[in-house]
Amino acid sequence: MTRRALLGLLGLPLLLAACGPKGSYRNIGPEELYQAAAQGALIVDVRTPMEFAQGHVPGAVNLPVEEVARWAKDLPKDRPVYLYCRSGNRSRQAAEYLARQGYANLYNLEGGILAIERAGYPLVR
């Protein structure tokens, strides 16, 4: 293999990484979310205010996903942000948006509040 071809092959992963999203997020379960909440982490419920009022994670703030472009700029980029919704879909969308904005410490509750209820964790009502 020529030296030029070898350099091209080695450089391809770097090029692809540079073109990818700025940040990333990780899916988590209810146990990890509640551990983070107990330690004072920033927990964001991206559901509607009506859904939030029906029950939410203790200490969570309600920032609807429909307004993510407005509230994203106010979130700290230097601390972890935990996101959840009803099923995990809207919070995943918010996590993807925030990742594109350069947030790196993002956590999405897989299964959403439905997973919390199945696991038996308490909600504020």
Automatic annotation (TrEMBL):
Cited SUPFAM superfamilies: Rhodanese/Cell cycle control phosphatase
Keywords noted in UniProt: Signal, Transferase
Name of a matching Pfam family: Rhodanese
Species in which this protein is naturally found: Thermus oshimai JL-2
Keyword Membrane part of the UniProt annotation: no
Record-given protein name: Rhodanese-related sulfurtransferase
Start and end residues of each Rhodanese domain: 37-125
Span of the signal peptide: 1-17
